[in-house]
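Polysaccharide deacetylase
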Amino acid sequence: MSGDQQPKICIGFDFDAQSVWAGSFGLSTPTALSRGEFGPRTAMPRILELLEREGVSATFFTPGHTIDTWPEVCRRILADGHELGHHGYMHESPVALDEPAERAVIEKGLEAMDRNLGHRPTGYRSPAFDLSANSTRLLLEYGFVYDSSMMADDFTPYWARTGDVLHMDRAFEFGREIELVEVPCSWSLDDFPQFELVVTPPVVMAGMNEPDKVRRMWLADLEFMVERVPGGVFPLTLHPQSIGRGARIKVLEDVIARGKELGARFCTYHEAATTWRASAPPPQGAR
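Predicted structure tokens:
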């Protein structure tokens, strides 16, 4: 099977640690922050051991705050051959930020990586899977190769756009494609809403699903992709503090096992983006 036609599985971890509770949910109590601490303290050794045992490379989208707080864990991620991607600084969504503020967050995350790790990321994922009108243009300007925050496809990368305009009284206005690969994501392939209980109005997330339900969902999508989407990319989004707790990690073990049975190649998001880019038509102008 050729590389382009081989199914690919991208295991992406949003390594948020404490930042998601403070930055996204506005919680700073000891119990809330301890949920984030579980990720680097307890889950990450389990996850990194599993990936090493299975010979699987993964991508860790990591806020700058996590890097500043847990630099030794982030150094191990790189030492083990995994990819480290940008994920804001304090898990702040860019949606409400003006352009100078969004630039500042991008730069602060980059500075944390450089200061602690001497590393420059090629990929970005927005906290909470959302972007501002400026985001894709800024990512291209800062030299990113790919983004993984949008959902216009399920298993096939595509070129990101800038300059889209939503008109309420006439057709949607498509902006121009740019040389930024979008590796799409999906809430249905994200462990956080499946497993976590969050009650901080207006955010209410009921989660707490049994692992078997999540396993069935993910394997069904994986099998669909392998059967129907030649060369597809299966973009799993996991959080160490969620997937690494108790029996949940067995779901990841089963996804890896089934992926190997199906002949899938495990690769980083960077590898998936550059593989797609190598044979993709060039970006088109405004449609």
